[in-house]
Amino acid sequence: MGKMGNNRTDEYTTEEIKVALSKLRPFIIEHQHRERIYKYISLYKELHNGEMPSPKDINKFSGFLISNQTCAIEADELLHE
Q: What does the pLDDT average to over 12-23?
């Protein structure tokens, strides 16, 4: 495997880079999921005179994101750029 701490990327194989990126994927998905939840809450508050969505509504939205694999798809697109 390439030397860590060295800024030269030509010392890493394509496969090593793919493995490293695949290890980041769960963290990217989690980050994207949180960002979507925060945006949902912000938009909800804006549309409902500052009122917070109920925990049930937040969980429902979260479940929607998970079931549609929205954040996983976004993460995959980001990693393949």
A: 86
